[in-house]
Structures are given as C-alpha cells and as structure tokens.
Amino acid sequence: MSDQASQTDNSNLIARSLSAVWHPCSQMKRYENYPLISVARGSGIWLYDHGKKRYLDAVSSWWVNLFGHCNPRINAALRDQLDTLEHAMLAGFTHEPVVQLSERLRDIAPQGLGHCFYASDGASATEIALKMSAHFWRNSGKPDKVQFISLENGYHGETLGALSVTDVALFRDAYGALIRQQDTVPSPDSRQAAEGESADAYALRCADALERHLQRHHALLAAFIIEPLVQGAAGMAMYHPVYLRRARQLCTEYDVHLIADEIAVGMGRTGTMFACEQAPAQHDANIKHGDKGITPDFLCLSKGITGGYLPLSVVMTRDEIYRAFYDDGMARGFLHSHSYTGNPLACRAALATLDIFAQENVLAANRVKATYLNRIAAPLREHHSVSGWRNTGMIWAFEVRSQHADFAQRCFALALEQELLLRPIGNTIYFMPPYIINEAEMDMLVDRTVHIINQLS
C-alpha cells in the first residue's frame, strides 16, 4: 500500500471514529486540535498507525500491557482456548481455566487469600470488595458497619460505588449528587512531607491520623480502601511501605476491613508481584503473615492480569469472609453477578501471563532494567524544569515546571512527534512501560523526553 493510501485510510478511520465512537476520559472537542491516532497494529513495545508511524508505548496502553503487544505466548494460549471453550456462565457451571487461575493466584498471593470472585474491570472489582465487606458485617450481626474511608486523592474507579471512595475533584463535582461520598484520611504521599521529614516519618504521621479516625468511627466503618505504595491518578504519588504495615495493624485492632486496590500496582509493577509484599507485618501477633508481607482482607486485581489482552478483574478474600456467606439462605449469599464472570478466554490469557512470570524470572529482570533506567536518567532527573523525581519498581514519575495551562495535551502531542506515547497527569510525566523494554528503548525514552521538556519549559 502506498504512503498516500495509508494516509487516506488513517484519515478515514479517524473521521469515522469521531462520528461514531464516544472516547473514554476525553473532552471530544479537544480532538479538533489534538487528533486521534489510528492504531493499525502492535508489536512488542511499539504501536503502529495506518500512516506507518510508530510509537513507543511508555504507558503500557493505560497500564495494562506487561509483555508487549501481540505477545506470541499469550497469542498461542488464546488460539488454543478458542478451539476448546469461548465462554460458559459461571453460575452453576465451572471450567478448567477459571479453576487453574484461582489456584495459581491463591499460591502466589499474600497468605490466606484463598477465594476468588471474578468480574471484568477494576471499577467492578472495587464495587465487589465494597459490597462484600458491608454484606459480611451484615451477616455477622453488625449491620451498621456500612461506611468506608479512603486516602485523599485516591482513585478506585468511575462507577458510582467506586466514585464514592474516589477523591478526584473532577468526578466528585460532576457526579457528587449521585453518590454517598465517603470520608478520606491524609495521604502518605511523600511529596507532602515537611522539609527535613523522612518519607517513613511522614507515613507514620499520616497513620496516626488514620488511627484517630478509626477510634472515632470504627463502629460504623466496614473497610478502609487503599492503593498500596503508589496512588496512580494522584500523579503517581509514592509512599513508604511502613504505612501499609501500620494500616493493617490498625484495621485489625479496630475491626475494620483492609481493601488493597492493586488494580494498577499488582502483577509486578512495584517490583514485587504484589505491592503488599513490601510491608511485612513483623512483630505483630494479631496478624497472620508469612514471607509475603501483609495480608489485606480483600485484594483487587485487574489491568495487567491478562497481559493487556482481555478484560478481567478478580477480588481475592480470606476464608473467614467466605464462610460468613456460606448458608442455606440466598439472602446471606453474595448478591453480585456479571454475564462474563470468569470468562475462559480471559482466564487463559491470565494463565499465560503467569507462565511468563514463572518461567522468565521477570521480577529479577525488571530490577536490572529499573537500575539501568535510573542510571541513564540523570539528564532528566537533573533538568532545571524537573522536580520530584521518584521511582517504585517499573514506575517512574516527575513534575515539570511549565507555564502552559494545557501542559498535558501539549506534552502528549509533542511526544507523538518523538515516537513516544506519553499521557501526563496534569504536570506529572510518568513512565510505566511494558516489562520487555530493552536498553536501547530506555535510552530513546529518556533522551526524547528531555527534548520534549526543553520545548515545553
């Protein structure tokens, strides 16, 4: 196909999309000035448009793609599954992929999380955890425990239940009349520490505020929901793991569930398979623990669990919670359903993703890559317009001083010119690349990001 024909196909597809598709998290009018990119194919860390331009996917296509686009191993697993079973409802039926996935997640998750409930996306996982927590307390003779708390600037999804524990002003202002907004407690975001205050000292100071809230309200509180180690929508706010350990201790002490929303940070993104592993609950006789860190009462997973292939989410919980629903009466059962719960294709993609982790020593390789990127990033980290450089596992973030009110849109457009897919949050640029990124691609990512910042600052 000629370049002219490719450009025509590109333009036609964009026009058709703007006519028929309402794009997510978008002000559609902005596409008048910042046109859509029509993706024709993906390969490895790269996306290609119909004009044959390529883009390094530095944000893993909204944080989901772990092992590259069109990964041969995941492709092969899905082709095999297509010839066996595409879908069967999970009410009254079961199948091998969902059983295998549940068993394997049980084996690698924080100790004691032995029961899996499936849905399709992160917001649904949040809804399930909130409902399951409140319903547990009702079944346990404490029906007044129906309130929740979350961290300031926290994000847990955009369905109405999830928005009730999401502290993002844009959503709260638009949909506040439709939800019962829950309370928040101070975020341990280390950027908010006082001058000279260490990250762990600030985290413990925030934990003290959590304790005061629990002391006053625990009789009405069902659960505390938290994004472990990194708050994504808050601009990749990172904090010390001591906060997780203290939160687990306090929730146990005050009889409040702890919900770990690892939708974005699970599946190796923070350097361990689950972020909760980085907060070992040592010297605490009230918490059952092993060598996998703290155990939340509910663990929410999605995004990277299928390697970025198919929608899937799961809520894992403890046997004590599962047993509270085990009864002859339907009213005591967990009342939540989804037509595609535990879809075999999605489960098979997740199993292939876990195979890659297990067989290719991914976490150790990621540590080497993170060390390399941190070393070569000196020109970026020391740039006169950059502040707040931070890194957790395979997540990097920093703020850029700029006078542009539309910084995020300008940065996105300039990045595309530099063959990069970046999606800033306000003035925060972040990298969350697929784990297959190599040294040459990291060199390109850093060098061209410096070029973009020079243009913007």
Q: Main sheet?
A: 7 strands, mixed
CATH superfamily of the largest domain: Type I PLP-dependent aspartate aminotransferase-like (Major domain)
Tell me, what is the CATH class of the largest domain?
Alpha Beta
Shape: globular
Strands side by side in the biggest sheet:
4-12-11-10-7-5-6
Radius of gyration: 22 Å
What percentage of amino acids are in beta strands? 15-25%
Question: What do we call the CATH topology of the largest domain?
Answer: Aspartate Aminotransferase, domain 2
Structural class: alpha/beta
Helix content: 25-40%
Mean pLDDT: 94
**With helices defined by DSSP (H or I, 4 residues minimum), what is the helix count?**
15
Give the name of the CATH architecture of the largest domain: 3-Layer(aba) Sandwich
Low-confidence stretches: 283-290
* Overall number of domains: 2
Q: What is the tally of beta strands?
A: 16
Report how far apart the termini are.
40 Å
Provide a concise account of the structure shown:
This protein is an alpha/beta fold.
Written account of the structure:
Helix content is 39%, strand content 16%. By secondary structure, the protein is α/β, with parallel strands linked by helices. The protein has two domains: 3-70 and 362-456, Aspartate Aminotransferase, domain 1, CATH 3.90.1150.10; 75-360, Type I PLP-dependent aspartate aminotransferase-like (Major domain) (Aspartate Aminotransferase, domain 2), CATH 3.40.640. Strand 1 (39-43) and strand 2 form a beta hairpin. The longest helix is centred in the middle third of the chain and has 19 residues, at 199-217.
